[in-house]
Amino acid sequence: MSDNFNTGVVNHWCPGCGGFGSLQALKDTLKKLQIKSENLAIVYGIGCSGNMNTQIKAYIYHTLHGRTIPTAIGIKLANPKLTVIAIGGDGDMLGEGLGHLPHAARYNHNITAIILNNQVYGLTTGQSSPTTPRGAKTITDPEGVIAEPLEPVAISLASGASHVSRSFSGDSLHLSKTLESAIAHPGFSLVEILQPCVSYNKINTFIWFRQRIKPITQTPKNIATAITLSAWTDNTIHIGEFIKQQRPVFLGKLVKTDSTNSYASLLLNFSRPV
Ligand code: SF4
Q1: Which of ligand 1's atoms lies nearest the C-alpha of 198?
Q2: Which domain holds residue 202?
Q3: Residue 268, Cβ density class (10 Å: 0-12 exposed, 13-18 middle, ≥19 buried)
């Protein structure tokens, strides 16, 4: 496999979709980290985000709706030498798949989960998602959404994730830097990418985000500060690293508990050579 990650497959996203910025930033980051295609596994969920599965050359698994994180964990356990990334949308990871996120975070599984958050179900033409703002009118909520939106950064922080960040698909430099730190991090990392859907979300546009996003100048030292900083206000949405801590990763914890007969030893022995 080559290391430019290009597949040559035609991309069918809508012209102007925020996904293009996320895709390019991710490929640039993988090159910068000198990760080889044959050492990379990416798991995609269902949705427009899942249609990125044809765009990056690597070991690809287009899994069931909401099951990107457990599939990615399984791959990492089977072959710890791989860099493993789970990519899903806000519907996939925070609707159908929400139950997996806090547990991956608290066990500190050594994978990166990327949520492409466009605040709507884009692939199925614009239904409300778990992150659609309260009051927004969609085809499923013509009178306006009555529920509060979920906040993936706060959920991950509260679940004990060791690396949590947010970026914007319209800021390639910030996004590449954010992804680089997250993918290189030993342990569970969560990246929320604010990614406009130009076809079905006419509120949270590129211009709307550019008027509100504000980079964090310093990574918070504690969870309480990080959660406070992560909250959206009418005028400000912070982007950057909310927490970055070194903690024992899942397999490392198991290896330390037993020398030869541990579950981790079994997993490592069963792992296929890369
Ligand atoms: Fe992108 Fe929205 Fe089009 Fe999907 S529907 S490809 S998220 S612009």
Answers
A1: 8
A2: 19-271
A3: middle
